[in-house]
Amino acid sequence: MRVTLPLLLCAALTVTGCARVSQSKLNPLNWFGSSAPSVMTAEGTRQPLVPETRATKVVDARGAIDQVTTLVIEKTADGALVRATGIASTQGQFNAQLVPISNERGTLTFAFRIQAASGFSGVNSAFSRQVTVARFLSFADLADVRRIVVQGATNARSAAR
Prior knowledge:
Radius of gyration: 31 Å
Number of strands: 8
Helix content: under 10%
Structural class: mainly beta
Distance between the termini: 86 Å
């Protein structure tokens, strides 16, 4: 009891001098500085975070699959699942995806894109070169769609309701 009371008093007096710590670099709340207001242009609109001149453009270097063999549209609770199977031109192709091209006059068009692996040039059976890919479409995506088309390099498949 005799030792704890003086220690508590010393701790209380030490803590009261912590006003300097709140403004020092030791305080984690001061590590990033204060926020600044956003910059307004002369017209009163806010400047974008990334200017349009510095916008990154993504180029899809994948090619189209050689042939689309099947197209199935399966109804789900939240929309539909578009599943397409195609045959690649060579072995070892990967990174397949249905990429939307257009949605005009009730026709939703997808490109069946796939990436060719370097070093693979062999052609085996068609079964071994089969690639299946799917894409989910919500009811909002399917609102005005009457027909879905999946395009390959040599052909296209379509399904209509």
